[in-house]
Every structure is written in C-alpha cells, then in structure tokens.
Design a protein that fits this description.
The protein is mainly alpha-helical. Strands 1-2 form a two-stranded parallel ribbon. Helix 1 crosses helix 2.
C-alpha cells in the first residue's frame, strides 16, 4: 500500500474562485473582449449556482441538453477539476492544460504558495511573464521564499503589482 500526501496550496482553488478572480484568470487567455468574458463568467456562475435561471449569455439546462451527448449543469460546486471543461466555453481555454496540476478542490485559500506553485498554475496567473515564472521556479529551489518582499526582489514592479494578490505563504489545511 502506498500513501501519498499532497499539499494543494500550490494550485489555484476552484472552491475559492470568485467571479472577479476568474475574470482575472480569463483576461490572460481571452483578452479584454468584454462580451466573451461576460459570457464565460455567466456560464461559470450558471454552472455552480443552485438554481436553473439562465444569466445573460450564460448557459443552463436547455443549452447542455442540446449537446451530443446531452448532460445537465451541476447547479452546485464542482465535483472534480476536470468538470470545468464541461462548462460552456471553457474547453478551448483550459482543454490543453493539465487541470489537476493547475487547479484544486482541496483548499479554500484564494492564494497559492509560490514555493509550491505548479508550473501550470503559475502560467495561468495574471501578470506573470514566462521569464518571471522561470525565475520563481529556479530561485525557490535554491532557497524557499520567506515573504512577499522576496518576490519584489525578482519580479518587475508591474508584474508584482498584478500577481501579488495571488500569492500567499500558507500550506493546505485539508
């Protein structure tokens, strides 16, 4: 028997993902197309809310039942990170990503620990360039970051100002 213990604090929590934070994630991939963003955000909210009322440009039962094969929206919290691909419009955005490396349902923190952050999660975070991601990964192997100040020393100010709200120095509590 093998037992594995994983700390999920290096992944983006879908449990703690608010509309505003999802918007920030989507901006990096979708861009600032307001209509596309609102459609995705409303489809997300329609999927996870408890009712069957369709938001403007959202998607509820009628949309999903017209698909082949048909299925029903969750109307509650996601059961798996892969379920995000079932939400209207999310497959093209997240379909090529290793979802279980980027996202988690096993923490309620709305920040990720930069010392444990997966590459997939870092690439999704707003504000971070590929070179900054490389620096984070490289430097944390030498010595873990102790606080936000350590990140200000390696991230350009414009990147840090956007990405800082996504970082926290916590460990999973689940």
């Amino acid at each position: 028997m093998n037992i594995h213990i994983f700390d999920h604090s290096g992944k983006i929590s879908l449990v703690a993902l608010t509309r505003n934070r999802l918007r920030m994630l989507l901006l990096k991939t979708v861009g600032d197309d307001e209509i596309a963003l609102e459609s995705l955000l409303n489809s997300w909210e329609d999927w996870i809310d408890k009712d069957s009322l369709k938001r403007i440009n959202g998607a509820e039962e009628k949309f999903y039942q017209a698909l082949t094969p048909p299925y029903l929206p969750r109307n509650g919290p996601l059961d798996s990170v892969e379920e995000i691909l079932d939400i209207r419009g999310f497959l093209p955005i997240f379909g090529a990503i290793e979802l279980s490396s980027a996202f988690t349902l096993h923490t309620t923190h709305n920040t990720i620990n930069p010392n444990l952050a997966t590459l997939e999660a870092l690439h999704l975070l707003p504000g971070l360039s590929a070179s900054s991601i490389e620096q984070i990964v490289s430097l944390r192997q030498e010595e873990p970051f102790q606080n936000m100040e350590a990140l200000t020393e390696i991230l350009p100010p414009e990147e840090f100002s956007v990405a800082r709200e996504w970082f926290g120095f916590h460990y999973s509590n689940t």
